[in-house]
Amino acid sequence: MNVLVLGGCGYVGTTLVDKLLKLNYYVKVIDTQWFGNYLYTHPNLFVEKKDIRELNSNDFYDIDVVIHLANIANDPAVELRQELSWEVNVLTALQISEFSKKNKIKKFIYASSGSVYGYKEEDKVTEELSLVPISTYNKTKMVAEELFRRSENDFDLYIIRPATVCGYSKRMRLDLSVNMLTMQALKNKKITVFGGSQIRPNIHVNDLVNVYIHLLKNNVKPGTYNAGFENLSILEIAEIIKSKIESTIEISESNDPRSYRLDSSKLINTGFKKKFNVEMGINELISKFNSGEIIEDDSNYTVKWMKMNNI
Ligand SMILES: NC(=O)c1ccc[n+]([C@@H]2O[C@H](COP(=O)([O-])OP(=O)(O)OC[C@H]3O[C@@H](n4cnc5c(N)ncnc54)[C@H](O)[C@@H]3O)[C@@H](O)[C@H]2O)c1
Q1: What is the model's pLDDT at position 254?
Q2: For the whole model, what pTM was predicted?
């Protein structure tokens, strides 16, 4: 089976592509490589450095499944480059759908975000609840979802709303809550928490990769699925880290009201079983930091890197 991964050089993409290759899939990656390329060369892997705004129908030739991860992927980066973000995250959706249809793609998996729910007080935020996107990033995800849904009769469409991802990937992101707070404790012995009471769902990167592979391999009903298994307050995350790394917690005021608990029963009912958790992610980061496999670099911080490189 031939899988096209748009954004395959990113934090999630790098771990996903490695796993697809281990499972003997043929993989084609299209990515601007803004944050580098940490993929190993492999006989079943073809990597093209290219912007998804310049795709053409031939890029989808002979592809069975598309996994679309190529976006400006967090709130501050989207605020920084709004025009670019609407182009990349939203406007490309129509063309990508059209090329997928023309080339008779069987399955299309789009990485939206759990943050489209914005602020929710419900104990269980299921896929049926209304979306209250707060940031521009959340809005780009919501609109792109709608654009992809226009093609739901052309291929099996899976819209995944992942929680905040944590854990180790060869392309490391240290601007995601669990990863960021763990790094602060490792480096400074001090964890700075903004607000602290906001509840956010989390997912380990290996579990998210397994969600994409589950959809690829199995006959899952097309639709929209939440993907997040641990709803924790930021303070609870800091406390777990503190229990493992000698450090102090400092609480500062927050201007980010997003707070919601994801319910992923719909995904679990398709037979998906999670195997990882936040604590395993933290343990992994500690061990990779101590072994020198995580060396902090500006490219680990999306918005800083985009500013520095004028992306
Ligand atoms: N990491 C999370 O916590 C999280 C949570 C929910 C949803 N998501 C979504 O999952 C996807 C992957 O996230 P990630 O954490 O791996 O982010 P990432 O920034 O590490 O990866 C995105 C990749 O896409 C590439 N890219 C961006 N714009 C491109 C363009 N115009 N053309 C070609 N390539 C382009 C980048 O170079 C990068 O390699 C994103 O769509 C993100 O919004 C991530």
Answers
A1: 80
A2: 0.98
Indicate which residue's Cα is closest to atom 22 of ligand 1.
Answer: 10
| DSSP single-letter state for residue 162 | E
What is the DSSP-derived secondary structure letter of residue 89? I
Nearest CA to ligand 1 atom 32: 51
- Pairing relationship of beta strands 65-68 and 2-6 according to DSSP bridges: parallel
Per-residue pLDDT reduced to its tens digit, 49-66: 999 999 999 999 999 999
Q: Measured from the CB, is residue 228 less than 6 Å from ligand 1?
A: no
The DSSP H or E segment spanning 182 is helix 177-188
Which among 212, 216, 245 is positioned nearest to 227, based on CA atoms? Answer: 212
Three-state DSSP string of 15-68: HHHHHHHHCCCEEEEEECCCCCCCCCCCCCEEEEECCHHHCCHHHHCCCCEEEE
Q: How far is CA 165 from CA 72, 276, 277, in A?
A: 15, 11, 10
Q: Are 173 and 13 in contact (CB under 8 A)?
A: no
* Residues 264, 208 contacting (CB under 8 angstroms): no
Q: Kindly list the structural domains of the chain, giving each domain's residue range(s) and its CATH number in brackets, ordered by start.
A: 2-308 (3.40.50.720)
How many angstroms is it from 171 CA to the middle of ligand 1? 11
Q: What are phi and psi of 248, to 5 degrees?
A: -110, 160
